[in-house]
Fold this sequence. Notes:
Layout: E1 3-9, H1 13-28, E2 35-42, H2 46-56, E3 60-62, H3 66-69, E4 76-79, H4 86-95, E5 99-102, H5 110-123, E6 130-132, H6 140-150, E7 157-165, H7 182-185, H8 189-205, E8 208-216, E9 221-223, E10 243-245, E11 251-258, E12 263-269, E13 278-285, E14 288-293, E15 299-304, E16 315-318, H9 339-356, H10 364-383, E17 387-388
Parallel strand pairs: 1-2, 1-4, 2-3, 4-5, 5-6, 7-12
Antiparallel strand pairs: 7-13, 8-11, 8-17, 9-10, 11-12, 13-14, 14-15, 15-16
Amino acid sequence: MTKLNVGLVGAGFMGKAHVVAYSNMPKFFWPAPAVPVLKTVCDIVPEIAADAKERFGFQQSCTDWRDIINDPDIHVVSVCTPNNAHEEIAVAALKAGKHVLCEKPIANTRKASEAMAAAAESVKKDDIISMCAYQYRRIPAVLRAKQIIDEGSIGKILNVRATYLQSWSADPNSPLSWRFQKEVAGAGTLGDIATHVIDLSQYLAGDIKEVVSSLKTYIKERPVQEGGVDLLGTVKLNDDAKKEAVDVDDETSFLVKFESGAVGSIEATRNAWGRNNFITLEVHGTEGSIFFNYERLNELQVCFAKDPDNNRGFKTIYTGPAHFYGEVTWNIPGMNIGYGELKTIEIYEFIRSIVEKDQPSTRFEVGNQVHKVCDAVSKSAQSENWEIVQ
């Protein structure tokens, strides 16, 4: 069976998620399209790189990502760094003939996202695969929602309502990680989590053509985190810790118009006490509605206009063996999947695309399209007018 050597750049939270998925993919999808081999892990902090090698089972570690790019034995590169490093690493990897899976958002500037999309386009003729890690597209319940929409069961889409609400940065004592620094992250909530529901909304309803938006920063400064990996608000620093300014948004909300004529709204915040990973999608059509909540990710709620008046309302579809990927995860209804299985599905789609030489649905151009929406959102927040996505 074909083996693909993996180089991982960035050994933090998302690096761990990628490693678990690479390791688990053949265990679920067997026979696998190819078997990933954990070859080299890179982190700029030597202790973190060395620890990741032992913890995750890589053959070797390094502190310079160029060592991975220049290694002819590495076939696949996972980019799990802060956003400002995505472009340089991904473009270099593509030019070196390596397949690239890059975490979202694709980049922290419009110029960088377009450069990445152009680089990916230039190597497509050589069957080099690019993929953005929009894993929520691959939730079985979301795939079923897409199927229901495409088969016309809810008619013409009228409205899409999407939210991504978290609470991990609602506490002012959550440290000033790179996610709160514009130079590194590019944006705050807009780039970090709103990009996910922008992608999901466009996946279900088509491209967004116009937005009018608001961006808010509630906590103006945060205590500085000294060293270590980004812990996503799981630690709190003392009130007397050194503090520095936050220059990105805590919350974004915007109205959208789709190319199809549908309208909708998107809201994202990391300051919503009581909401953990609250992704919701509600789609209303002329013949029915769909509702999804990630915190109940094995469920999809549907309502159809054709149902009798005395029996109309949302019913719950419980995803399992009869649904997408159900035959390879757990074969008893109600056993359910979680985040780990979801990233495993993502890696399967990535590896399958490499073997079949077929660009995935979340190729770099799709990531660039999401960034175009973010760019329009940022412009609208300043102009306080509708802005065209272009």
